[in-house]
Design brief:
This protein has 5 helices and no strands. It is an all-alpha fold.
């Protein structure tokens, strides 16, 4: 089983995926040709969201033994989440320009499927 990505690695995956989708769209690629990158983006974004939730409520041992570490992780998770949301906006604009306004609804539906599957596999 693959472990969820660290927050830093996850934001790099998000950024790379958005750049790849943008490049593919500029080359005239169809949506199915971007699907791997879109799935990577949403999987990494979910890892960031999960890290943020965990950082907001760390285990008691971390609060007691490493209080500064817990705070640093929470701050990093919030910053990276904001960056991921910005990248999601970039992805939305890129797909909208290439495929039209309605495509985002389909992408979000696929995102929900990806998140449900990852939740079942990685986080349960």
């Amino acid at each position: 089983m693959i472990e969820p990505l660290s927050v830093i690695a996850a934001i790099k995956v998000c950024s790379t995926a958005v750049k790849q989708v943008r490049n593919l769209c500029e080359q005239g690629a169809e949506l199915h040709q971007c699907s791997k990158q879109i799935a990577s983006f949403f999987g990494a974004k979910q890892d960031i969201e999960k890290a943020k939730k965990q950082a907001e409520n760390p285990p008691i041992w971390k609060k007691v033994l490493k209080p500064h570490s817990a705070q640093a992780e929470a701050i990093e998770a919030v910053i990276q989440r904001k960056q991921a949301l910005k990248l999601m906006g970039d992805l939305h604009r890129t797909l909208k320009m290439r495929f039209g306004a309605d495509i985002w609804t389909e992408v979000v539906a696929e995102q929900r499927k990806i998140e449900a599957e990852r939740e079942r596999i990685y986080y349960k």
